Amino acid sequence: MKTIQSIPTSKIERAGQLVKTGLKVGGNYLAYYGEKIIHPSLNKDKLNENNASDIYDGLQNLKGSALKVAQMLSMDKSILPQAYVDKFSLSQFSVPALSAPLVRKTFKKYLNAYPEELFDTFSEDAIHAASIGQVHKATKDGLTLAVKIQYPGVAESISSDLALVKPFAVRMFNMKGKDLDKYFIEVEQKLLEETNYTLEIEQSMTISEACKHIPNICFPKYYPTLSSSKIICMEWMDGKHLSEYCAQEKDPEKRKNVAQALWDFYMFQIHTLRAVHADPHPGNFLVDSENHLIAIDFGCIKTIPDNFYFPYFDLIDTEILENEAAFEERLIALEIIRPDDTEAGIQEIKAFFHDLLCLFTKPFQEKTFDFANDTFFAEIAHLGESFTNNENLKKLNGNRGSEHFLYINRTFFGLYNLLHDLKAEIVTKQ
Predict the structure, then answer these.
(1) Does some domain include residue 133?
(2) Where among 90, 107, 125 does a domain terminate?
(3) Which residue segment(s) compose the domain that 380 sits in?
(4) Partners of 198 in the β-ladder
(5) Which of 28, 150, 400, 426 is deepest in the core (most CB within 10 A)?
(6) What does pTM read for this prediction?
(7) How far is C-alpha 397 from the geometric centre of its chain's CA atoms?
């Protein structure tokens, strides 16, 4: 695995890396438009591939929240061209790792000992590397362990990274108005939590214990005494990453069992714990040789407050969807309809969200749902595109929705995409 000797940590260094990446993207556009003069029928596929590659190369050197944003975008396949999705998805579990000297330095700083002093064996090279940390394999007293090490400077650079990417996010998602800050505060808070490995161990142990009764899912054991705020030591779990499993497993019954475990895991967290693993990408799940789903990362946990939970999940109820007054009441509670909206604007919003929810809640309306249904996902993509192109909605003042939508919607989009990759029909309504 390719390694890196250092990570830019200062605001100036990180901004400089993004500027350098921007210049490369600008060069790609110049080359594209120059070639298009000669070949007018040229499409943007090659441009997208070049831009995705250059942007990803720049972000993987920065690591941290900048790369995490790319990972988040790769989960929603309807936002970006496929070239970006393919490239950014690598950030889930395959980026250049820290060099051995940097790893040793991290151990000495946070556990006051080098790896060879703590473990019987310790792999010098990382087994996996992602946006915030990398994993090494170790042994101790007959146990095989996974040791996750956080990249230096990640937590300290979150605020400055978000300030750098904010203009791009505002433009990409057509955000406007004076109330933007609540969304960026929500993202910053969750990213800071993800860099707190002491909190992650607590969350991992709590949710693992609460969910251990769910059939066909298992969790690693954690070792707090061999962990710190920047290092997590846990049981090594053998298995294939979920994306690899989906590509290789041909038995529909096995895929169905994994998909059912995934659905049950998420529904129990949402409706019983009111706290959910809000980072459902393939790099956070394994499938072992006995076809058990394994959840291996609990850094991003979203607590769902009652004032959001009840109106949000009320909208699954078809009676509320079809009752205009009750429907509007929930949209107001969720801050989708604002006090300063005109009557015409309210009607436009209600019409769009009614169509959206009638489609998006389909898995909850029947006892079973087939996530292999390509038409369902094509309709979601089409509706998203129509929202992006709807000039009337664009003209509405301000942003729509509570800040809690960011991670709850991310959870559902990610979950739906994982289930679609598994191509399984499962029981969705007990």
Answers:
(1) no
(2) 90
(3) 306-403
(4) none
(5) 150
(6) 0.80
(7) 28
